[in-house]
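I would like you to sit down with the record closing this message with an eye to the fold:
=====
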Amino acid sequence: MLDCVVGIEIQGTMITVSKEDYLKAIAEAEAEGQDVIPAALAHWLAVTRPAVTFALKRLSRDRLVSVKSDGRVYLTSQGRAIAERTIVRHHLVERMLSEIFGMKWYEVHDEAERLEHAISPAFEEKLVAKLGNQPTCPHGNGLALRTPAERRKHGHCLLIETKPGSRYSVASVYERDRKLLEFFDQEGIRPGVRLTVESQNYDGTVSLTISKRPVRLGAAAADKVWVSKA
């Protein structure tokens, strides 16, 4: 899998599309608060465990990741730099598709996953010049990935953790599930929207009011929305 597409060379290491995918997945899984182990990467990237084992051996050999004795995977400084560069380009592609081409906010993630690897440094500069500097993507997520603990330090909490009777503003949503994003869009839940939490219910659901319209979210969906006090 790692050699399917040849990318660019950095400090003597050939960076392929698959290497970028693995490195970005590790960084994103860390930001989701997950323990990054081979099983988690297999699920995250929808590949087999043997494929992950092979990939991690190559990434370790290239000094892009470090695999500890307990199986946990960590990015090296060079691996993190590549992951962050890929995340920046993903962010720019999402904004380009949304702001220039008018794609719906819930459509741009999947398209950006494919296009992020094709962005050259020269085109990246042109995108920045065209779009300007903005810290968040259409889903409200920032260029600098924050762990759940870091988000909470900045005054954010998950919708499932909110207090009834309080007003909140949607800060960001989980962007890796297209069907979930479409559901959020149908219910009017998107970054910047203000809502009132009416109740946290015995069955795990959350009752909200958005623009005077009642909305009831299941726990799985409410656990994918970060909000801040309005």
